[in-house]
Amino acid sequence: MIRVGIINVTGYAGAELARLLFTHPEAQLVSVSGRSRAGKPLAEVFPHLACYDLMIEPEMGEVDFVFSALPHAASAEALAPLARAGLPVVDISADFRLRDPREYAAWYGGEHPAPDLLAQAVYGLTELNRGAVRAAKLIANPGCYPESALLALAPAVKAGIIGPEIIVDSKSGISGAGRTLGLTYHFAEANESVSAYGLDGHRHLPEMVQELARMWPPTEAPQPFDFTQDRPFDFAQGRPPSPRVTFTPHLIPMSRGILSTCYAPLVPGRLPVDEATKEQIRDLYREFYQGEPFVRVVDSPPSTKQTQGSNLCLVYPTADIRAERLVVVSVLDNLVKGAAGQAIQNMNVMLGLPETMGLETPALYP
Amino acid sequence: MIRVGIINVTGYAGAELARLLFTHPEAQLVSVSGRSRAGKPLAEVFPHLACYDLMIEPEMGEVDFVFSALPHAASAEALAPLARAGLPVVDISADFRLRDPREYAAWYGGEHPAPDLLAQAVYGLTELNRGAVRAAKLIANPGCYPESALLALAPAVKAGIIGPEIIVDSKSGISGAGRTLGLTYHFAEANESVSAYGLDGHRHLPEMVQELARMWPPTEAPQPFDFTQDRPFDFAQGRPPSPRVTFTPHLIPMSRGILSTCYAPLVPGRLPVDEATKEQIRDLYREFYQGEPFVRVVDSPPSTKQTQGSNLCLVYPTADIRAERLVVVSVLDNLVKGAAGQAIQNMNVMLGLPETMGLETPALYP
Amino acid sequence: MIRVGIINVTGYAGAELARLLFTHPEAQLVSVSGRSRAGKPLAEVFPHLACYDLMIEPEMGEVDFVFSALPHAASAEALAPLARAGLPVVDISADFRLRDPREYAAWYGGEHPAPDLLAQAVYGLTELNRGAVRAAKLIANPGCYPESALLALAPAVKAGIIGPEIIVDSKSGISGAGRTLGLTYHFAEANESVSAYGLDGHRHLPEMVQELARMWPPTEAPQPFDFTQDRPFDFAQGRPPSPRVTFTPHLIPMSRGILSTCYAPLVPGRLPVDEATKEQIRDLYREFYQGEPFVRVVDSPPSTKQTQGSNLCLVYPTADIRAERLVVVSVLDNLVKGAAGQAIQNMNVMLGLPETMGLETPALYP
Amino acid sequence: MIRVGIINVTGYAGAELARLLFTHPEAQLVSVSGRSRAGKPLAEVFPHLACYDLMIEPEMGEVDFVFSALPHAASAEALAPLARAGLPVVDISADFRLRDPREYAAWYGGEHPAPDLLAQAVYGLTELNRGAVRAAKLIANPGCYPESALLALAPAVKAGIIGPEIIVDSKSGISGAGRTLGLTYHFAEANESVSAYGLDGHRHLPEMVQELARMWPPTEAPQPFDFTQDRPFDFAQGRPPSPRVTFTPHLIPMSRGILSTCYAPLVPGRLPVDEATKEQIRDLYREFYQGEPFVRVVDSPPSTKQTQGSNLCLVYPTADIRAERLVVVSVLDNLVKGAAGQAIQNMNVMLGLPETMGLETPALYP
Known about the structure:
Largest sheet of chain A: 7 strands, parallel
Oligomer: homotetramer
Strand order of the largest sheet of chain A: 3-2-1-4-5-7-6
Helix content of chain A: 25-40%
């Protein structure tokens, strides 16, 4: 039995990790830490976790595997000694996602707390990076928005069928903002309302751009549709070609779920532009995600509710033939596939366990 | 592996059974039937059940255990031959809940389709009736409202501390009304609104009254606080004393969950009437439910969200000292502890499996 | 044109006053004050009030009429000098609702800031107290819960048809908790959930009891059904007979609206106990509220949405014949009839304006 | 007093017209018709309209002005004789929005019922077409989605600062789907969920394209920023340049409101591309909408709740400087500015009344 710890269990991502781990056959949650709530029983802070008989401790106990659900900066600080000591860790914060510490400084406002670890950190979007995850000791778990956008766009990007003028319009439930108090998240303000935010630049944007850039095929020679290899990212090679992404997140009056609607121009000449295109694109996506347990290419537009509480991402690719544009809709549960479930999936792969272990419960519907 | 079938999988209770059975270690769903959707894949009707590769059939296939999620009348008709053939069945409809076929006719408007089976049917509120469930072949799964009210009131009734003037004020999410279409359940009508219904008599009332009456102690000699025995119901003995219950259900703008607030006068002289009373009542409830895996007596008022997707019922008993009244708040998920989860709990007990098998996932929160 | 001021415009009740006054033909909002937001334009704090060109001031300007939407204690302190100077005021806080300063101290935890003004304060439930409101200079605007319960129960109490064992089970939207931040009101926590609160005694309870007691008929000689007179409350006469009220408020995942379900035993012998009773009770209520512009006795159970944004209270009285109990359901918008609309209705009556002026907009539906 | 009639009052747009007309000082609703509910009191079908003492009739009575809230095709059929007889009418259906009957046939599946009237019909987006509305007798009231997109894009299009590659990503409350029953709109299905629909082409797309094309400046000579003239549409001149619009509507779990996020490339060289661009664009929009009572250019991203129940459209224009893209967010209430309020605004202009008459109530917030 693997002894697992969660640093900062008191937010939604931490609590969701605890919930999912409860039924994991090979991992046992043995230590949870938290800052403000240290000394209280986990069951008091989260009554739905009364199944656990654990106290929230000020510091991590003895464990074999650690998840950090701390905010950025604090997370790297807490994980650095553990990672340096060789403990396998998954960081749910943003600290190890951006490869370039200058980007980190620009978007997160401060020097990176552990730049020496960046080279060994692996971006943990398992489906796109499985080989590297398998070998990693330090995983940067993806942001919830990038997760939804990258899974939606990867097959098209790698197939070279779209140009770099990309728009990602995302709709997120309010748990995405965390458990922090704020007037924006007051029920009476958020209910019966939609709004856009982050219009001057959301921190998940550079993460999307970095990962899209990595998978972008050389322009002179578009790839054949071969999705079988992990392409290693060689940062020393210099900046890859930059997709021009506009990303707009929106707050939706629901607790969980992200739907991203992604738009990009179809590259002329790569696909016929008629009604058959849609089916060809769907085939391309099906082939790309064939055998993936947690990504399903679906035949009709999905709803976020179909993934509530589950580790699935549903992807619906189609095209606007009139405007010669790819349109892909993806949905996932921001706290599961967008955070805690993805983190456990990474743990499974890192530890050589079956990738789906502990993550097989179907979505809660309705 | 027990081969399980669901008759009428196409409503919310049927789909929830399928969801919960997917991770049950000893039961395998092998056959699902439905009327209007026969011939379609289950995954098409319910995309969140795409984990199953099952077609909806017009008739049940070969199985070892059957759940019926048909509407009343149709359910008894479908189950009668199976039950007579000795197949163990759990009926989620109301057909076998009322012991007296005249009551059934009065409330459900028609002759009972299988009155001969009523004598062998067991009311499947496991916590209050475990011995009988263990021996039963035909279980009448409780209604969601009675489940919440009976678990809230049983300890007080059996202890003889309350009088029969009972009010049950229940608040239910809209999935309780099923998947049927109706203007009342249209999102734009139901959202941002609360309403009462069933004020001229809801069908769950006689079920509450029947079961409360069964557990009522003889008035001349109030029971000592001894909760250890199942009291068998002897209908031939004539009508038990009738609690006078007013039951008002309300529609709440949420998908899942029932909260019942139950009121009854404290019998003078049984408990001191001061602030200590509350703690005494809480102790009494804790003792009553000691060791129960699915009923938790809690120390502060619970919210339905704490049980979302789980088989738990949380009970918060207290007293209004000024008015000398017991007040008990109970919460549960109407589709799990109020329907499908309770049904699987009954199956586990009937088959001699661990009672909690397949039902241990913590609630989805938030 | 009457120059109107609002003290503490920055909460929901204050903002709702401003919204409703905008279309009032005879009153003009000329001054708004607020504590933390002083110096900001009203339109910045509340974008939906951009129709106003007003700054939030630290102190009230020159006005003819004042509403206070301050919290209790602060409100009496701010209003006392104005009231003593003879300015007509409506206090939306609880400060002048309880006649007995000892009750105030017991429930609100502190000496009353202006006990000398209690004698002249009038409880502003216009429908039940119109004569006194007309003559008053200082109005205690009712609490939202008491408003809904008193309008539901007054006809039955005054007619002497119910006994004093009363249960008020109320369901409120979350704006009732104000604009203050708190984990309970975080969208992700409050959404998809119902919970009870205030089980150890809510501050609106003594207000309900006080006003019900005032209208209670002498037990020895039940009143004939004559609803034409205001019965003046003579506190010096000693405490009136005390109804025994249990009041349980619940938080509902919606922004606005209160539904109260009120239960009381029918006094034996006052009404026949058969199906005709319901219609007789409805007639009694219709007669009681005949000609009232803002209370409608309805023929089927109402929903809170039918009153959204309007000053209406809908009342549905019925009976549980089996249990010989009166059941009354009332609905209103907690911010309008339960606060700001009721306050303006009182202003209209105090100033001799038509009672409905500025309050005639139908509810927003859906 | 203008006697007004509503054909098909039984949907949400019809009921909203009735609600808004109740407080209109110069118009009186005297006749309402409906198909299935003819013979019933309006107050029974819509309890929130109990302020009206009107029966739903099978046919329109004697009136001076007519609104039709019938579905497409039926609407043109009902209005054609009235329009030919010279009665001023506003059609809320889509029947007179598309100028080319072939487009109508292609998108609405049938011959246009009254093609002879198309030439005289005026597209009633008052802000963009005021002169023509003033002179019109037959108004095609805009669709709710085009209303939100056109108000968001018009200033940029007319100023020639954007290219034709336009994406409109809209989020709508569920009342937009009407009062018709459907599983998609069942509360338990729609709640806690977001989904995209109409991905194969929504009927509001050709309407957007047509109106954007009309306002598009000749490419060879971009217009100076002069917004003062209505540009008459001369269909005989041949098809105007076609913007390539991708439009994706989404269903949001709320009753009312539309938020559209609109994207288009900034034309190189028209504006500097740096942080100052955003303010310049905002200035351009402010100038464009200067003096408009119902369109407000706002300084921070708006929420739909800020327009709930009001006739306002809030527009927030900005730019993604990195990607050289215009991003505009607009919000409105789909039943008011997106339907009934816009219709009354048109009526006011047609009849020479003050444009804001009866439409001044601030939004209901929260």
